[in-house]
Write a structure and sequence with these properties.
It is a single chain. The protein has one helix and twelve strands; from the N terminus they run ββββαββββββββ. With 156 residues, it is mainly beta. Strands 8-9-10-11-12 form a five-stranded antiparallel beta sheet, with no helix packed on it.
Length: 156
C-alpha cells in the first residue's frame, strides 16, 4: 500500500547471517568489522528459501579482503577483473550475462544468441543483434495489442 513501509514476510538469523524474504525475493546479509555484504536471490530461480540459506551458509564468506559469493566467486576490495578501461572483457565481466527477473520470478529481459528478449504483461519485444547492420536501431518484433470491445456469443 502506497505510503506504508513494506514488511518482510520472513526474517531469520542463522550462523551470523541475517536472512529476509518478501514475496519471492530472498536476501542474505552479513556484517563483519569494517565490512558488510548483501546477496540477493529469487525463489524458484535461485532455488527454494531453504536451498538459498543452505548455499549461503555453506559457501559465502565475508572477510576484510573481500566477499566469496554463495556460488564461489570472490569479489575483492581492489579487484578490477581485468577491466582497466571501457570495453575490456565486456562479455566476461565478472559473471555471465544475467536475466532480469521480477520479484515473482518472471523473466523480463533475457539475452542469448545475440537476441535481447523483453517480456511483460503479455507483450514481447525482440532485438535481434545478429541482423543489425548499421547505426539504425535493430528491428523490433512485438505481439499485437489485445483486441478491444470483443464479445463472445454462443450460437445455438
Amino acid at each position: 500500500i502506497a505510503g506504508q513501509a513494506a514488511q518482510w514476510d520472513v526474517q531469520e538469523h542463522e550462523d551470523g547471517w541475517h536472512f529476509k524474504k518478501q514475496g519471492k525475493v530472498m536476501v542474505a546479509i552479513a556484517k563483519a568489522a569494517g565490512a558488510a555484504s548483501v546477496e540477493i536471490g529469487i525463489e524458484g530461480v535461485d532455488g527454494s528459501w531453504d536451498e538459498f540459506k543452505t548455499r549461503i551458509k555453506a559457501n559465502a564468506a565475508l572477510s576484510r579482503d573481500g566477499y566469496t559469493t554463495s556460488r564461489g566467486d570472490f569479489i575483492g576490495e581492489n579487484d578490477t577483473y581485468g577491466i582497466e578501461q571501457p570495453g575490456d572483457l565486456v562479455d566476461e565481466f565478472p559473471f555471465p550475462r544475467m536475466k532480469v527477473v521480477n520479484s515473482e520470478g518472471n523473466v523480463l529481459v533475457d539475452y542469448r544468441d545475440d537476441k535481447l528478449v523483453m517480456q511483460k504483461d503479455g507483450r514481447r519485444n525482440v532485438l535481434d543483434f545478429s541482423k543489425w547492420q548499421g547505426l539504425e536501431p535493430p528491428p523490433v518484433t512485438r505481439v499485437p495489442d489485445k483486441p478491444q470491445n470483443l464479445s463472445v456469443v454462443e450460437i445455438k
